[in-house]
Amino acid sequence: MENASKALMMAAGVLMSLLVIGALILMFNNLTSYQEVNTRDVRSSQITEFNSQYLTYDRDDVRGSELYSLLNKVIDYNRRESTEGTGWADTGDDINYQAMEITFSLNGIEDDLIADNSKGKLLITNSSYTIKKNQNTFENSIKSEVDRLEQKYGSNSLTGLTTNLTAIFISDSSTDREKAQAIDKFNSSSKKISISSFDEINEDSTIREEVYEYYEYVQFKRAHFDCTNVSYNTNTGRVISMTFVATGEFN
After folding, report:
1. Tens of pLDDT, residues 160-190
2. Which residues contact 17 (CB under 8 A, 6 or more apart)?
3. Which of 91, 173, 214, 244 has the fewest CB neighbours in a 10 Å radius?
4. Is the pTM of this model over 0.70?
5. Distance of alpha carbon 203 from alpha carbon 170, whole angstroms
C-alpha cells in the first residue's frame, strides 16, 4: 500500500512537472509570436513613415520648386542610407537599402521655359532627366550658373527682372519713350545693378541673355508636373522610383 502511494505521488509529481513545462512552452511560444507580430508592426510602421515622405509627391500638381527639393532629398537619402553611401558618416554600407531614382520629363514645355525663342535654351538643355545614385545631375548642370547669376544680380533683383521681362527687354526698334521706360523699369526692379542707357539691355546685351537664363530656372520652378508612376522594392516595401511628367501648366 505504501509503495502504491509513493508511486502515485511520483506520478503526480511527473504530471505537475509536465504541466509546468507545457505551460512554459506555451508562454514562450505566445511571447515569440507576440514579438514577431510586434516586429512586423514596427517594420510596417517604419515603412509607412518612410514612404509617406515621398508619397506626398504622388499627385497631379507637383510644382517644379517641389520637384527640385525632392531631387535633393532623394540624393541625400541615397548618400546616407542606401547602398550608394560613401562618406565616413554614411550608414548605407550597413543598411543596404536600394537607392531611389527620380525621372522627370519636360514633355514639350521646353519652349515655355525660354524667354526668347530665337535664342534657344541657355540653361536647361535636356528634355528629360533621371536622378539616381548619389549625384543630382540636374542640379549639378545648372547650379553653378544659377549661383553666379544670383551673386551678380541678387536673387530678389532677378525675381523682379524676370517678372517684368516683357516691359524691360523690348525691341531695339522701340520708340525712345519706350526705351526710357524700359530703363526705369529695369532700375526699379534691380537692386544691385543699375543701367543708364538702353544699349546695356538691348537685344545683344549680356544682361538680357543672363536674365533670360535665370528666367528658365524661374519657369521650371513654376511648372506643374504629374506623378505618373511609383515603384516599390519587393523585399523592403520602400519606394524606390518615381516618375514625373510636365503638364504644361505654370503659376
Report:
1. 999 999 999 999 999 999 999 999 999 999 9
2. none
3. 173
4. yes
5. 8
